[in-house]
Amino acid sequence: MKIKPDNKNDKSNRILVIYDILRRGCIVKKKELSEKFRVNIRTIQRDLEEIRIYLSDNYDNEELIYDYEKRGYKIENQNLEMISSVEIFAFIKILIESRAFCKEEMEGLLISIISIIGKQEQKVIKNLVKNEIFHFQPLSHKKPILKIMWDIGQCILRKEIIEIKFKKMDGEEKKRVVYPLAIVFSEFYFYLVAQIEAYEDKEPAFFRLDRIDSFKMLNRKFIEKKRFEDGELKKRVLFMYGGEPIHLKFIYRGQAIEAILDRFPTAKIQNQSKDTYLIEANVYGKGCLIWLLSQGDSIELISPEELRKEIKNKIENMKNIYEE
């Protein structure tokens, strides 16, 4: 890390600057620091000793050591390494591409994330994403969701039963008493995964957070009959359509087999002949229909038979529309 000249030489500022440099994983050298702050080397040595004592008192596995190879001081065995500029850049790219937040929340998140790194790195990243931020188009609902996401997240941790007031796709207002299980993200939206009270024997339902107008705690807690695994659920649910477990068997004809396996994390190739694959996968609900139909003639569903018939009917209806 390049050390810039600085006229501020008071002790508190000096120690904070040195500590910040060390926290970024950089090496500090007494001579360079003494020239920067216009103090003698013994003063810098005392500053480093104060930092060493601070680390010893507050961090179990960190210490200030002298690196003989690089001829400078560094913090060794850092529990949490400072995030790098390239990692910040990756986070920002994903955040912008997700379009999950309204403009005001997106701007706040970008400011908070980018402030972690130094000013020079900030300038570089701002220039790299300047055009994307200028053309950023939020989702049509334009609703802030961070607060309700956090508040419901606390109810999930405490296993609080809540009543949610939400709008369905057609705009109809509804209320449900639910057991909140998880918050997940998929295809632009955040969803509350929740068990509807009185339907504990059914699979969890999905409620888009931006469609939840309000919720209230009912001062009751729920007990999970079995541990809910949101990571496992995400492997089996497409487009956040809930439903019963379905075992798919289909033929894929094409060369992009990686894309198929990425779409279905539970998929297994049962047979392969050149560019033709027999694949089996486990999913929840009929959200898979959207994807299967989008693949045209490269996918042929073999089973279950009921779902195969449904696809045939949809294809026939599409054919009739275009013939008209």
Automatic annotation (TrEMBL):
RNA-binding keyword on record: no
A Pfam family it matches: WYL
InterPro entries: CBASS_pafABC_assoc_protein (IPR051534), WH-like_DNA-bd_sf (IPR036388), WYL_dom (IPR026881)
Residues in WYL domain copies: 152-216
Keywords attached to this entry: Membrane, Transmembrane, Transmembrane helix
Top-level taxon in the UniProt lineage: Bacteria
Transmembrane region(s): 177-194
Name this protein carries in UniProt: WYL domain-containing protein
Source species of the chain: Clostridium chromiireducens
Lineage of producing organism: Bacteria, Bacillati, Bacillota, Clostridia, Eubacteriales
